[in-house]
Amino acid sequence: MVVQQNPIDTSHLEALLDFYSSAGVDCFMGDTPLDWYELTSKQAEQFRQTKAETAPSSVSPSAVVAERQRDTRHAQAPITPAAPAAKQSEQLAAVLPDAQIVAAARDIAASATSLEELRTCLEAFDGCNLKLTAKTLVFADGHPDARLMFVGEAPGRDEDLQGKPFVGRSGQLLDRMLDAIGMERSSTYIANVVPWRPPGNRTPTPQETEICKPFIKRQIELVNPDVLVFLGAASAKTLLGVQDGIRKMRGRWMAYPGSGKEIAAIATYHPAYLLRSPLEKRLSWRDFLAIRQSLKK
C-alpha cells in the first residue's frame, strides 16, 4: 500500500521571509539577541560624559562634530557576528543627537558652495546615527539645474541598495506620472529630507529629521528650482512648518523661501500612498497638471 503524502505548504514560510526582507533584514548576525537601541544609548552617554570631562568650557558645535568625525574614522571597525556585546558597543560610532549636532549640521551644510561639495560633506558627516545602519547615502537623482524639484521624506530598501531616490515601485509610478505630463525624470531633480534609510523603513525620528534638515535646505538653495513639489505631508511639514494633513494640504500653492526668490511650492500624495490607494490618483493628476501649468509661466 502506497501512502500519498500531501506536499508541504511553504506559503507561510515564504510570507515570513518576505516580511523580514521588507523590514530590512537581509542577513543573520548570530544566535544571541542584541539590543541595538541599548548599545547606542550607552555609547552616546559614554561619549557625552567623556567630552564633558575633557572639553573646554566653550566649544563650537562644528568643532564637536569635526572632532567626533576624526575619532570615529580611526576607531570605527566592522562588527563581526560573533563579537561579544561589550566589544560591539565599543565599535559603534553613535552620537548623541543634541542641539550642538544640529547646529554643527547647519554650519557644515552652509559651507558647501556646490551640490558636489554638499554630497562630500554628507558622506563625511557622522552626526546622524542612521548612517550606521544604511548601506549607502541616497543623495539625489536628476538634473542639478532642473526647474522642477521633488522632495520626499526618506529612502526605502530599493533606494538604499541603488543609492538613488525613488527607484522602487513608487519611483516607477512617479516616472509614469511625469511622462503623463510630458516630462522626463532626467529633466527634474529628486531628493529626500533624510538621505539615509531608517531601519525597517520606519519613520525618521524628529531628531533625525532635524539633523538632516540643514542639508536638504541647502540642497534646495543650490538647485534653486522654479517649482518645488513635496511628495507626502512629512517633507512639507519639515520644510514649510505647516501642520495640516496631506488631504488639506495637497493642491494648494505655497511659497518656499529660495535663493534670492520665492519658490512656488505644492504638496501632493506620495507615490507609495497612491499604490495603496489608487482612487486618489485622480487628485494627484490634478496636482501634476497644475505643476505643468506653473512651469509654463
Automatic annotation (TrEMBL):
Residue span(s) of domain Uracil-DNA glycosylase-like: 139-289
Catalytic activity: Hydrolyzes single-stranded DNA or mismatched double-stranded DNA and polynucleotides, releasing free uracil
Record carries keyword Hydrolase: yes
Documented EC number(s): 3.2.2.27
Matching SMART domains: UDG, UreE_C
Record keywords, A-Z: 4Fe-4S, DNA damage, DNA repair, Hydrolase, Iron, Iron-sulfur, Metal-binding
Biased composition (Low complexity): 55-66, 75-86
Region named Disordered: 48-86
Family assignment from sequence similarity: Belongs to the uracil-DNA glycosylase (UDG) superfamily. Type 4 (UDGa) family.
The name this protein goes by in its record: Type-4 uracil-DNA glycosylase
Organism: Roseibium porphyridii
